[in-house]
Amino acid sequence: MKYRTIVADPPWDIGDFPANLHAQGQGATPCPYPSMEVEEIADLPVSDLAEKDAHLYLWTTNQFLESGYFVARSWRFTPVKVLVWAKAPKGRGLGGTYASATEYILFCRRGSLAALGRVDRNWWQWRRGSHSEKPEAFLDVVESISPGPYLELFARRQRLGWDTYGDEALEHVQMGAA
Length: 178
Known about the structure:
25% strand; 4 helices; 178 residues; alpha/beta; single chain; seven-stranded mixed sheet
């Protein structure tokens, strides 16, 4: 099956969580899920799963924003807009001098798939969940703009009407290196 809309939240290799995020004296802790190097993500055969005319929504963080453009282009999509999830700060957070309270979604196109509608912004303040959990309201926005069939890569849960690939959801598609 080929998909007209793909949402991907790759497991970017963010490294260990710094000690200052945890109780004093615990030290750094490993990322709670298996991660992938940028080149491994870029080599996934996502292009083979997409229709000739398709939309891609690629989640990334500030640390991997430039890599996100590389990955989108490797998957044969053209990045056209950065969408922003502005999160309420949560403790000291990751990010060094400036704590990170945003995540980004690269909206990308391939071919000439028309949008179903128009949204009057490119940023949202959805509620946060646990680490790496994405807001369900985001997929509502995707469905209002981009036509199906839908595929979510690296999904953490199942959504009605969507096929998925990921450790925590039903796997409807098989994925391997290109």
